[in-house]
Specification:
The protein is about 60% helix and about 0% strand. It is an all-alpha fold. It has one domain (about 30-40, about 55-215). Helix 3 packs antiparallel against helix 5 and helix 4 (about 100-120) runs antiparallel to helix 5 (about 130-175). The longest helix is centred in the last third of the chain and has 46 residues, at about 130-175. The radius of gyration is 26 Å and the shape is elongated.
């Protein structure tokens, strides 16, 4: 496979290029939607407990040992880079979920009521505004409540999907032997930038790099 960003040849199937740290596949999003489809049956069960993370082992003292360790960790986490992408895509999807606005439904209800009521008003015995406001209130209330229930259902479904995805990521992290990086620092692009900083002399140690970036 060839990386679509840097053009380097990639031996194994991966979603993060080990050479440049960018996305290696064009169809990244398919992994997330496949994950959602495969876990659709899980929506009916309760939220699983969060898997606790292992404590990172001490960071090696020598610079060369840190570089060798980062190379080993990069090779491991690159193999599981799709798990990071799933969590990232779920973040993006959840950011698009918004609680329905009562004001918007009030305006929409008034418009729908007008479109229904006014064409029929000539056929009514008396033009009574109360009928219009009753219809307006009914459309607004029913629409707003249904939209709210739909929002809460989707929010709960994605919360469950997120927990499943995060637990998969945590389980993968716990399976990594002698990992001296916290989970937040394990995405392959971050490890690659850390390696570049150590090799170029931009930073003297992994700890110094993390403290600088965090600060």
């Amino acid at each position: 496979m060839i990386c679509k960003e840097c053009g380097a040849k990639i031996e194994k199937l991966t979603r993060i290029c080990p050479h440049c740290g960018e996305r290696a596949l064009i169809d990244d999003e398919l992994e997330t939607w496949s994950f959602i489809a495969d876990t659709a049956a899980k929506h009916k069960r309760e939220m699983p407990a969060e898997i606790p993370l292992n404590e990172p082992v001490p960071i090696p003292d020598e610079r060369t040992a840190q570089i060798d360790g980062l190379e080993r960790l990069k090779d491991y986490f690159v193999q599981h880079s799709n798990l990071y992408k799933i969590v990232e895509d779920l973040d993006y999807i959840e950011s698009g979920l918004h609680r329905p606005s009562f004001v918007l439904w009030l305006l929409a209800g008034g418009l729908v009521a007008a479109l229904v009521y006014f064409p029929l008003s000539p056929f009514l015995p008396d033009f009574i505004w109360a009928y219009y406001f009753v219809l307006w209130g009914a459309v607004t209330t029913v629409g707003y409540l249904r939209a709210g229930r739909r929002y809460e259902r989707r929010k709960a479904e994605y919360a469950l999907l997120r927990r499943d995805a995060e637990n998969d990521l945590r389980a993968m992290y716990n399976d990594c032997a002698d990992c001296f990086l916290p989970l937040a620092w394990t995405p392959p692009p971050q490890i690659i930038r850390m390696l570049d900083a150590l090799r170029s002399g931009e930073t003297d140690s992994v700890r110094e790099y993390m403290e600088r970036e965090a600060g």
